[in-house]
Queue: 2 jobs
Job 1
Amino acid sequence: MKNYTKYAPGYYPPPKCEMRWAKKDHIEKAPRWCSVDLRDGNQALIVPMNLDEKLSFFKILCDIGFKEIEVGFPAASETEYEFLRTLIEDDLIPDDITVQVLTQSRKHIIDKTFRSLVGAKRAVVHLYNSTSFAQRQQVFRASRDEIKEIAVTGAEMMNIYRDKYPDTDFTFQYSPESFTGTEPEFALEVCNAVIDVWKPSPEHPVIINLPATVEMSMPHVFANQIEYMSDNLRNRDSVILSVHPHNDRGTGVADSELAVLAGAQRIEGTLFGNGERTGNVDIVTLAMNLFTHGVDPKLDFSDMPEIQKVYETLTGMKVGPRQPYSGMLVFAAFSGSHQDAIAKGMKWRKESEPNRWTVPYLPLDPHDVGREYDGDVIRINSQSGKGGVAFILEHNYGFIIPKDMRAEIGYMMKDISDRHHEELKPGDIYDAFAKEYINDFDHIDITDASFGHGSSTKAEHSAVTVDMRVVIAGKVYNLTAEGNGRLDAVSNGLRQTDYHFDYKFITYSENAISTDSDSKAAAYVCIADTSGNKYWGVGTHADIILASVNALVSALNRMNKRIHFVK
């Protein structure tokens, strides 16, 4: 690409890097979460949410378990102001939830912000101003001291207004906006100046929030910046260190996780990463990453489809099909080898009942987020294999396909998908399987069969007798035969007809396909003609004996389609 020379790193590494965070391999407990969906997320929408939509969104955030929710910039518009007043006056804020509001360092804005909070039990008032080199140079054309003065003046005014409204328990928060483009020494200077004004204590801490307003560096650089700030902020035991990553470089999640390792205690983000430009950090991904490491995320995403549905309805945004943990395709396996491994992993899990989830290719049990194996995990197209098809037929319909039969069925489904250029749904797979293999009575049919045992007491194995009614190409045969098993007896009976039935049995298996009062059995028969060609048939019936007869008949009719011994 041309023009790359006009770009260069715009961040500032800290003067000292300990990188203690690099020695940690995972996050041991959930940070404090603050949803900024109703502020940062909402302002990024093409059509911002109306009052009713905001109220609905606030409720789902409460249901998920957020304890801190930034509800807006009440001094910015009447819609924002009305939303906050509705929450307060209609008593819609649960006792365990704190609302957060944003304000600039201007007296009239701070005044209206505090007035908007009258009647609230608790609130976080979030003060911000831009501190980056680019903003100082181009937007404000102001010196470092002038920028710091903006922050200090705002902090002082907030002290005054806190005293004017003693009925609300206020927590103060400060953000040096565009922190990632600010020299760390200067960011530290400004934050410490604000801390000096607010004089926090461990009982009444303040929040220092460090935004990656624009993501400018690799995640480890951001982690170093956070560690530097954490090490050097004044009154550290009275400061909750927060981060607010965006996703301009696509590493918002990594920024957040490394920031927590580096000392951050709180994360601001949104559901599914909604927000300005490429979005805020996705709290869903962050929380579920903790969950899959065995850490309680303190947020509930167990009904992900419903949360996604509400989110898409209220925001008009769509969750991408590959979005971690929530996308339509994140559990889908089309590859034959992947499907086979998943199917075997699920079988092993059923047999062994392990405490931990370790199924290959599935980092998360889909059931834990409200997804189903049916249509979510094993997906069948022209790239799929035998294991996936067998899994669908067993998991959805109860057919335990014999190992030697799976390849044949798998190739059949691949061919169907390839010819139609489409994915096969479970119903499509069953319909094709049933049409080809199950209870095929054309042109050969055994309409009745009753079995008994020979009377010899000296034989090692008692013979089986059968009385059966056979219809072949419309002609009826009433036959009696004997064999060393029921299928052998039926075969011997068929050989009494006018047709040449020259085949041998290869294998037989059976299984129950349901457990209720309408339970059926499935039988699987494989026969071979004189050339060694194999033919599978499947029979179903409430009686396993008759199911096996139906399976043999189905195999014979499939054999007839090739050899044509019955016209």
Note: The radius of gyration is 35 Å.
Job 2
Amino acid sequence: MIVKKLKRTSFKKSKAVMIGGLVDYILAEHDDRGKDKLAYAGSRNFLTTTVAAQKKEMISLAEESIQSRMPVTHWILSWQENEQPTSEQVDEAVSLFLRGMGLAEHQTVYALHKNTGNYHLHIAVNRTHPYTQKVIQPHRGFDINEAHKIVAEIEHRQGWASQMNARYRVNEQGHVVKNLQRREQMKPKPKAEDFENATGEKSAMRIVQERAHAVIQNATCWEELHAGLDMVGLRFVRKGSGAVIFVGDTAVKASSVDRNFSLSKLSKRLGEFKPGYYSERTFSKPAPEPVSHVCREEWLDYQQERQRVAEEKRHARKKQEEEREGLERRQQERRETASTHLARHGLSILNIARHFLKEQEREEREEVRNKSASTEQATQLPRFKYWLGKRDAYRANLWRFRKRIASGVEVRKRTFPRVGTLPSPYAAYREMVKKRFPEKMDESRLDAAIALYMRCAGYTPQEVANELYRHTPARPHGQSRDERIDYGRRVVGYAFGTAGDIDIANINPTPEQIKKFNNEATEDAFTFVNKKQHFSYRIRPK
């Protein structure tokens, strides 16, 4: 699972507008494209029962907290592609989250969305206590770290898979502990990551983290630090009471790379700050670098497209500037001509003419601005993932899952020869998978693994979907036909989609391995049938 806290950066709107908009977004049944997104919704600690009344109730309580500009906090819990939580699991996850944050008595609105490849849960909780009207600061501001602990508990209780680099895990005694196997990875700040996601290009912060961290950490004096950074094309400059590291003309705060890289801490280690000499190349903008090895060729094409669009924009701006200058000259000449011809008719007539000329000039300038805006919009290049999606949807999905693809692993659409011969293989494959993965696993994760194994055995997507519809206990038969079909569709979409291709590529099963697990499933099927027949024989009446 992944947990995110969405921080609001703009507070220009009133609390009522911000909270109302957030609740409406969370509980909306459809997204902006008209696609169904609401899978399940709930609320906690309200006096009223309708959505409209609960929204007013949350706004009213939030407005009592004058010391907080926005007391309602927005969290997102996201499951992996092969995981589908039930409504009971969602309710339990919300209860665990609120209890862990110390907000169990607070107003909460939550909803499970299904309009993306991942089921994700939105939680909007009012930190204003309904009785004391005090605004609670969960865990004294260290709520994100606590959220990771809660996620580890939810994963353990419900059988979800942990992220590869999760902060916490649950040990054998059932206690949440730090994940000692976690590799400390330097990650850019969210703003830098947004830039990388938009362009596919390494941010200045990532470049500094990759090139400068070891240099600064191992430096024994300021001269060595400056010389090392110069070799990798970076500059360390004092700014005010702190320091920044320049990537070309882009400044990155030194302490944001590592807390130990603040000017005060470096001065304690290296002595009083001494400026360094840097070569000319450290002042020029470095060439763009791809953030991932995935879709590298497409990214190079995208860079060429960016350059072309940038050149078109420069040409358009130059042309627009010439048009504005020409318009100003024509307007000036028109004003002078009008003044010359109308001056003899008196000041009143001249003022009337000036008024209408002024309005005409304003309309002309507005027309030029609108034309410039439309030209700018027409030449706007979409984000890399959208550009890639229009070009190749499959490659776009690979880009989406790029962090799961190890270097050197080739991901492709694979077809497997038919080795599975069971007419109804679900039960047999279920037993085989449970033997191979004895750890606690949610039913939807189990079904996803079963579907992936069946795909490798040569079963078709329709056959897998039919087996899931008829036999899976993950969705009880009390659910509607459409709900069961949607569940099977998402499981099959994972197993036969890009995420399944990646998991198969990482394992890279050989024909011998496929034959082996299929034989295991076949043996389990015969064992299951024999047990069933033996049981029937025993209970047969005399």
Note: The longest strand covers residues 38-44.
